Structures are given as structure tokens and as C-alpha cells.
């Protein structure tokens, strides 16, 4: 059984140890030691430690029965080894995990919300709380409570109890084991069964900041950050606010109101622009209909545009479809490619999708659509030939 020194003293960064078992499998070495400071990955929702053994990078750490397995790519020749963990990573995990205990305790004490899920991600931490909803004012109250505990710098300790001693302390949740139960206590404020690494005092958490929350499977999923992560979160947001303030020539306290005003103005301008675009489409569509020619009682609209967006042609096609029964043959010649849009009334007995498939080998085109409308790309040099080919096939099927 591996002696788990990370539970005794989570501040240890380097120790010596002895290899008791080493297995080579799948081009990796699986190493068990007599003792370790490496916390196993996702034990109780906490990520594993990063670090090295004799300078060789540890790829993964996991728990197997009562042993901790360390995985390396390179072989470690000596039985006697020196373990080093990445302290910044360990401290970050302790800040987030201890912060979660405190935040969960705040929700439980203030609103009776129990924690039923917890995960420390690369950037953010989340907990699932058994509350049907959460208001901004309630979240603020929880945040204030938790940070006041941090600023008071209460002591945090861990100890073991047995199942028959559970009733002697006000634990926040039931343990998952029946003996040798490890309790993490925040100075008579919170008692929680936990096998994670934790700080010695609440002040080391630094700060807790709730970022956002949402409904999730009948509960509230809350995203938050602690300590250095909270500082980084504030740093980039402060930089963003300052940049936006400069762009808007406004004070940082006024930019939210300014952005709301600009957003409203943008929506109004978009509505006005849509009306203008619709008028332009109508004008251009009527102009095309005046230029249309007849083939066996059916009007044909044919036009090749230059440096035009296909969205504009689509808008024209929709207008023509809504106002007339026409065959539409549109092409766009840009600097590097050609585009096309072809449409026919349902009454014409022709399948444009099949025609496009037949023409793809000859004209090296890419595209798709429906039996009555297709669009795609081809080389600008072949655009007119392709449209003539398609028109010829359509004309043969017109009454």
C-alpha cells in the first residue's frame, strides 16, 4: 500500500521514495512507490498532480486499490527516486477545491442547497447545487458570505473518524466509505468528508468569484474561480473593459449603458437597411423581368454579375419566385472563381439536381440543391458554357 503523504502534508513539494513495483506495458512504465506526494487524477473530482520522478516527466497518476500508480514514458533505472511536483498546479487545485468546500457550505447554510456535482476544469470550476433557481441577489449574498470567511482567515484541518462517530459532527454530506472517514473541517463552519488536498487557512483561497450559472438537470450549475484563477479572470476582463472604454470614449462605469444604446441603434439600423435592401431587390427584380425573354410561353431571366455576393442573388431569386413563374439563370464572375444559381418553376418537367450531377464531370463544378433550384461554383472561364448547357437541357423540357 502506498503511503499517501499528500493527505498528511499537502505542502510537500519534493521527497525521496523507493520503487516497489514497475511494469512495462503499452510502451509506458507503470510505477508503484512505497510513498508519494502525487495526488491521483480525478480522485473526488480533483485533477491529479503534475511533476517528475528523477527528472522524468510523470504522464499520469491514478489510484489502484490502495496503491498509487505513476505512469512515465521513460524508464527509471534506480530503485531510489526523488519526486517533485509542480507546486503552482498543486496550489491552484487546493485553492479551487477548498474554495468549492466554502462555496458549497455557503449555499447550504444560506439556502439549503446541497452540492451534488463538482469538477475542476482547466480554466473554471463548477458545482451543481440542488436549487430550482438562483437570482443575482442570492448569488451575490453567497459570494459575500464566502469571501468574508476567506478574509477572516479561519483554520482548515483534516482528521479521520469512524462511521459510529458521524453523528457527533454536523457533516454537510454523507461519506462514501464506511470506515477511516477523512473529514475536512473549516473551523467549525463546514465539515465535509473528502480525500482531496486542502489549504491550511481560508485566507490562502484569496478570493472566490462566481462567474455565471444555469439550470442543469433540475439543479443549478454554477461556474466559479478562486485565487490566482480569479485574479486572471479579473485581469482579462479589466483589460477588455479598458479597451472598450477607449473605443467608446466612455468611462468604464458607463460602458454597459453605452453598449446597450449602441445595440439598440444597431437593431434599428438593421431594420432600416433591410427595408432598403428589399426595395433594391424589388427594383432589380423588376428590371430583370423587363429584360426577360420568352421560351415557349415561359419567361427566362438570364444575367451574369461581376463581383457580387451570392446572398444578393439568392435574395433576387426569392423575389422572382414570389412574384413570377420564371426560369432563372444567374452567374457571378469574381476574380478567382465563378458562381451560379439556377432555378425553374415546378411546372417544368426537369430535375436540376440530376442535370448538375451530369454536368459536373464536363465542367468540374461543385454544388448542390433541389430538383427546382441549384447553386455552386465553377471556374470563371467555364461559367457561361455551363449556364448555356443547363439552359439547353431546360429548354428541351419546356412546353
How do you describe this structure in short?
The protein is of the alpha+beta class and 399 residues long.
Largest sheet strand order: 2-3-7-6-5-8
Average pLDDT confidence is 94
What is the helical fraction, as a range of percent?
25-40%
Q: What is the CATH topology classification name of the largest domain?
A: Threonyl-tRNA Synthetase, Chain A, domain 2
Number of domains: 3
Largest sheet: 6 strands, antiparallel, barrel
Q: Specify the number of helices.
A: 8
CATH homology group of the largest domain = Threonyl-trna Synthetase, Chain A, domain 2
Architecture overview:
With 399 residues, the chain is α+β, with helices and mostly antiparallel strands. It folds into three domains: 3-85, Elongation Factor Tu (Ef-tu), domain 3; 91-242, Threonyl-trna Synthetase, Chain A, domain 2 (Threonyl-tRNA Synthetase, Chain A, domain 2, 2-Layer Sandwich), CATH 3.30.980; 284-396, Diaminopimelate Epimerase, Chain A, domain 1, CATH 3.10.310.40. Helices cover 36% and strands 32% of the residues. The strands form five sheets. A six-stranded antiparallel barrel has the order 2-3-7-6-5-8. It has a six-stranded mixed beta sheet with strand order 16-17-18-19-21-20, sandwiched between helices. Strand 9 (115-120) and strand 10 form a beta hairpin. Helix 2 (87-111) crosses helix 3 (136-152) and helix 7 packs antiparallel against helix 8 (383-396). The model has no long low-confidence stretch (mean pLDDT 94).
